Amino acid sequence: MIVKASLTALLIATLCWASDAFADKLMVAAASNLQYAMEDILKQFREQHPDDTINVVYGSSGKLSTQIAQGAPYDLYFSADITYPRQLASMGLAASEVLPYGVGRIVLWSATRDASGMTLADLVPEDIQRIAIANPRHAPYGARAREALEAAGVWPQIQNKLIFGSNISQAAQFVETGNAQVGVLALSLALSPRLAPSGSYWLIPDSLHKPLEQGYIITQRAADNELAQRFSAFMGSDRVRQIMRDNGFDLPDSKPDGSTINATQ
Predict the structure, then answer these.
(1) Is there a common fold for 2-103+211-246 and 106-203?
(2) CATH top-level class for 2-103+211-246?
(3) Residues 30, 33, 38, 40: what is their CA dihedral angle, to the nearest 10 degrees?
């Protein structure tokens, strides 16, 4: 009986090991503004591929790009600025074309004020003392925030009020917790289940900054990863495009599969 039980345990362990060994896995690096859209996308994908494992690490696009260049084990990289994956591709670190997946927008958001009635000029008066943005040096949403504030002519007056998040999610956290009275955040976060019930926003005109064209690559590490190919194909589906729209993104001029679409579709 002991021998039989041992053999049974060994068989179970072997089957578990085999299942794990042949299951497809992905490690994804994604810009922080994509968190809620990506959660919806993964939920839909897992309904069709329940045995596959996809883990996501969120952060600032610049820092994630640097990590990949230094050998971090990411299979796909979703950036809030398409420039970063293009740079990695030019370094020979991509196993796919650079594929656009969305165009982001920035907003003024506040949990304590009616931001829907504000403009960037309203950030100058002394009653607003702390303004949160993502760090412009490595976070695309922070860079576009600075561009908009400069274009509106208020950057010099509000510089000493700024507090910087390492990424757009941390900037949102500063405003959400009251450490800042208002923030320049991603529309995708303003519409999220986390922020939408507790604050209001004003959509910053996109004429005040460069487009937030977002793109991704399959990294060279995942050149032979079939799951990476399946997930990339799924990103071009109508279902994913609807998720992106629902999360506040405009659509790019082309799908991730390379075919042309209307940017407002």
Answers:
(1) yes
(2) alpha beta
(3) 170
The ranges assigned to domains in the chain are 2-103+211-246, 106-203
Angle between helices 61-69 and 83-90 (to 10 degrees): 10
Rounded-to-integer distance, Cα 118 and Cα 254, Å: 34
Terminal Cα distance for the chain, rounded: 66
Q: Is 168 annotated as a binding residue?
A: yes
54 known ligand binder: no
Question: What letter does residue 137 receive in the DSSP assignment?
Answer: T
Residue owning tokens 């799908």:
255
Q: What is the pLDDT of residues 163-220, one digit of tens each?
A: 999 999 999 999 999 999 999 999 999 999 999 999 999 999 999 999 999 999 999 9
Domain 106-203 class? alpha beta
